[in-house]
């Protein structure tokens, strides 16, 4: 196919001049201006749009196996492509969990032939129970790219030390959901003034920060790579920044909802459960700290923590609703509004958070837009307006606070694994 009138951009430099890109058998064969379509060649006119290496979301929940009523590998990848992502890393809170090589193999088999690459994250502990370590080397050999017990934080410090030692030998990160459970449960939102007014049990910021402090020390001791999942507090950002300054092997990620929304939305929307997530939405100062952390490089990647739930699970009293929202399809628009349109970051810096850093953290090859390379690209704009309504949702679930909103900035198409998927215009 031939992609016409597109501006290449990557993490190294601002967008260049408009060019055409020819792809044959999944390989980029020409990048030039004024290319003429060949016989039977599909043409896509991308006038006014950018093209970058394909984006990656390193933290999603595909729910398969076990919870296919919420999402499957196929529907999750549909949502990912609609959001401009050509790769995702899927978390292990499935049933059975991704705690053995056969489950890793199952997920890879389900993902075979899709336009989105799927990279499984294996469990730290068997059945995510936090008592005994999994067969990490076997899972890495089978295709796992990292380890995490995800929504169940590794509470046992000895187990976390062992996990970091093992993962260091295997050259992969250990991803921890940073939460001290005795401090945080049964919290249903951020602990603060709003939770007090609403009479809801809160999750304090300190529950996240204490666990990060512990993992910083364990990473320093073991030399292992700890990755902080979905960072959400001002103090947590400071802890990671200080640890990086001391050369400790630590990375982190932030979700669009954590640098866009606050706990006040729960009060404003009268306990709408689509605003319930974990870590919870926090305060204005936390939002600003996360944006600062993204801008200065403390926070390495942007992820979505895409967490599908069925309607019947979310349409209950706030305290009984599960945590989580879908986010793959709306991530880019939130990024544009909060980071680009605000002037807080430049386009190459943002692209790095979606292409270079997530893959580097997980030791996955980073694609490039160059002649002779496999075509793994995302085509997008930064200001086109569109309505995020039910017709725009590709996920099997609908649990999102952004439904019905007019968004600005949109992924337009992706090309990966020899497949072109047009997502919006």
UniProtKB/TrEMBL annotation:
<keyword id="KW-0665">Pyrimidine biosynthesis</keyword>
<feature type="binding site">
    <location>
        <position position="150"/>
    </location>
    <ligand>
        <name>Zn(2+) 1</name>
    </ligand>
</feature>
<dbReference type="GO" id="GO:0008270">
    <property type="term" value="F:zinc ion binding"/>
</dbReference>
<dbReference type="InterPro" id="IPR002195">
    <property type="entry name" value="Dihydroorotase_CS"/>
</dbReference>
<dbReference type="InterPro" id="IPR024403">
    <property type="entry name" value="DHOase_cat"/>
</dbReference>
<keyword id="KW-0862">Zinc</keyword>
<dbReference type="InterPro" id="IPR011059">
    <property type="entry name" value="Metal-dep_hydrolase_composite"/>
</dbReference>
<feature type="binding site">
    <location>
        <position position="59"/>
    </location>
    <ligand>
        <name>Zn(2+) 1</name>
    </ligand>
</feature>
<keyword id="KW-0378">Hydrolase</keyword>
<feature type="binding site">
    <location>
        <position position="93"/>
    </location>
    <ligand>
        <name>substrate</name>
    </ligand>
</feature>
<dbReference type="GO" id="GO:0005737">
    <property type="term" value="C:cytoplasm"/>
</dbReference>
<feature type="binding site">
    <location>
        <position position="61"/>
    </location>
    <ligand>
        <name>Zn(2+) 1</name>
    </ligand>
</feature>
<feature type="domain" description="Dihydroorotase catalytic">
    <location>
        <begin position="51"/>
        <end position="234"/>
    </location>
</feature>
<dbReference type="InterPro" id="IPR004722">
    <property type="entry name" value="DHOase"/>
</dbReference>
<feature type="binding site">
    <location>
        <position position="177"/>
    </location>
    <ligand>
        <name>Zn(2+) 2</name>
    </ligand>
</feature>
<comment type="pathway">
    <text>Pyrimidine metabolism; UMP biosynthesis via de novo pathway; (S)-dihydroorotate from bicarbonate: step 3/3.</text>
</comment>
<protein>
    <recommendedName>
        <fullName>Dihydroorotase</fullName>
        <ecNumber>3.5.2.3</ecNumber>
    </recommendedName>
</protein>
<dbReference type="GO" id="GO:0044205">
    <property type="term" value="P:'de novo' UMP biosynthetic process"/>
</dbReference>
<keyword id="KW-0479">Metal-binding</keyword>
<comment type="function">
    <text>Catalyzes the reversible cyclization of carbamoyl aspartate to dihydroorotate.</text>
</comment>
<feature type="binding site">
    <location>
        <position position="150"/>
    </location>
    <ligand>
        <name>Zn(2+) 2</name>
    </ligand>
</feature>
<dbReference type="Pfam" id="PF12890">
    <property type="entry name" value="DHOase"/>
</dbReference>
<comment type="similarity">
    <text>Belongs to the metallo-dependent hydrolases superfamily. DHOase family. Class I DHOase subfamily.</text>
</comment>
<dbReference type="InterPro" id="IPR032466">
    <property type="entry name" value="Metal_Hydrolase"/>
</dbReference>
<dbReference type="GO" id="GO:0004151">
    <property type="term" value="F:dihydroorotase activity"/>
</dbReference>
<dbReference type="InterPro" id="IPR050138">
    <property type="entry name" value="DHOase/Allantoinase_Hydrolase"/>
</dbReference>
<feature type="binding site">
    <location>
        <position position="305"/>
    </location>
    <ligand>
        <name>Zn(2+) 1</name>
    </ligand>
</feature>
<feature type="active site">
    <location>
        <position position="305"/>
    </location>
</feature>
<dbReference type="GO" id="GO:0006145">
    <property type="term" value="P:purine nucleobase catabolic process"/>
</dbReference>
<dbReference type="GO" id="GO:0004038">
    <property type="term" value="F:allantoinase activity"/>
</dbReference>
<feature type="binding site">
    <location>
        <position position="230"/>
    </location>
    <ligand>
        <name>Zn(2+) 2</name>
    </ligand>
</feature>
<feature type="binding site">
    <location>
        <position position="309"/>
    </location>
    <ligand>
        <name>substrate</name>
    </ligand>
</feature>
<feature type="binding site">
    <location>
        <begin position="61"/>
        <end position="63"/>
    </location>
    <ligand>
        <name>substrate</name>
    </ligand>
</feature>
């Amino acid at each position: 196919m031939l992609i016409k009138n597109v501006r290449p951009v990557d993490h190294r430099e601002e967008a260049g001049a408009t060019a055409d890109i020819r792809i044959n058998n999944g390989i980029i064969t020409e990048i030039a201006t004024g290319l003429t379509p060949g016989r039977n060649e599909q043409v896509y006119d991308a006038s006014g749009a950018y093209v970058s290496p394909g984006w990656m979301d390193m933290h999603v929940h595909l729910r398969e196996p076990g919870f296919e009523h919420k999402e499957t590998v196929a529907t999750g990848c549909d949502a990912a492509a609609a959001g401009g992502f050509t790769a995702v890393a899927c978390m292990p809170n499935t049933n059975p969990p991704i705690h053995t090589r056969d489950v890793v193999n199952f997920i890879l088999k389900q993902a075979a032939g899709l336009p989105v690459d799927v990279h499984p994250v294996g469990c730290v502990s068997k059945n995510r129970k936090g008592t005994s370590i999994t067969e990490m080397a076997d899972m890495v050999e089978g295709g796992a790219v990292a380890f995490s017990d995800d929504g169940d934080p590794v509470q046992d410090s000895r187990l976390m030390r062992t996990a970091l030692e093992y993962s260091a030998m295997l050259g992969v990160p250990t991803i921890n959901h940073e939460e001290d459970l005795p401090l945080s449960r049964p919290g249903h939102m951020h602990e603060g003034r709003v939770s007090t007014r609403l009479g809801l049990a809160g999750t304090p910021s300190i529950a996240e920060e204490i666990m990060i402090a512990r993992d910083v020390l364990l990473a320093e001791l073991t030399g292992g790579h700890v990755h902080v999942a979905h960072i959400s507090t001002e103090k947590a950002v400071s802890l990671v920044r200080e640890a990086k300054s001391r050369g400790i092997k630590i990375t982190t990620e932030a979700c669009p909802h954590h640098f866009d929304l606050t706990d006040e939305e729960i009060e404003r929307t009268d306990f709408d459960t689509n605003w319930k997530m974990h870590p919870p939405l926090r305060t204005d100062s936390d939002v600003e700290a996360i944006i600062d952390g993204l801008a200065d490089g403390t926070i390495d990647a942007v992820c979505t923590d895409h967490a599908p739930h069925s309607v019947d699970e979310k349409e209950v009293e706030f305290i009984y609703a599960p945590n989580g929202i879908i986010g793959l399809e709306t991530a880019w628009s939130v990024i544009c509004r909060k980071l680009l349109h605000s002037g807080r970051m430049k386009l190459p810096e943002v692209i790095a958070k979606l292409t270079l850093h997530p893959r580097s953290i997980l030791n996955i090859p980073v694609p490039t837009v160059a002649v002779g390379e496999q075509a793994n690209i995302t085509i997008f704009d930064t200001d086109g307006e569109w309505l995020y309504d039910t017709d725009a949702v590709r996920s099997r679930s609908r649990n999102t606070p952004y439904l019905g909103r007019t968004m600005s900035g949109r992924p337009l198409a992706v090309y990966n694994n020899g497949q072109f998927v047009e997502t919006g215009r």
